[in-house]
Specification:
Belongs to the UPF0231 family. It holds the Pfam family UPF0231. This protein has 116 residues and is α+β, with helices and mostly antiparallel strands. Helix content is 35%, strand content 27%. The longest helix is centred in the middle third of the chain and has 15 residues, at 36-50.
Length: 116
């Protein structure tokens, strides 16, 4: 997963991810933002998943719902009826994006370093 981080004109952090993962950038920018505690909690959950101390993990934000199970990360809109204005896609009941657990952990670690 390719990504870059920048700040907007108000100083808020923004994440931009490649086309296949663009929803993860939106999720980081709008559901997580500069909340270092949320990122730390997500990274702790990933450690537990990798150590098989936990089988799955879910995180519900303002816009998205994140599910991690079987080394896969899936991102869903909280309300699949909502047509998210930034992305013009047909949103079925399934995930809007997904990636592997290690790619996701790498994204979170880099985001945490950026927002600190």
């Amino acid at each position: 997963m390719d990504f870059e981080f920048l700040t907007d004109v108000t100083g808020e952090p923004l994440a931009k991810c490649d086309v296949e993962s663009e929803y993860f950038g939106d999720w980081l920018s709008h559901d997580i933002g500069a909340d270092t505690e949320a990122v730390t909690n997500l990274l702790t959950a990933i450690e537990k998943l990798l150590a098989r101390q936990q089988m799955e993990f879910e995180y519900t934000g303002k816009i998205y719902h994140l599910m991690i199970a079987d080394d896969e990360v899936e991102l869903f809109l909280n309300n699949t009826e909502l047509n998210h204005s930034e992305f013009d896609v047909d949103l079925a009941e399934g995930p809007v994006s997904g990636c592997g657990l290690m790619d996701f952990a790498n994204l979170l670690e880099n985001w945490l370093a950026f927002i600190r």
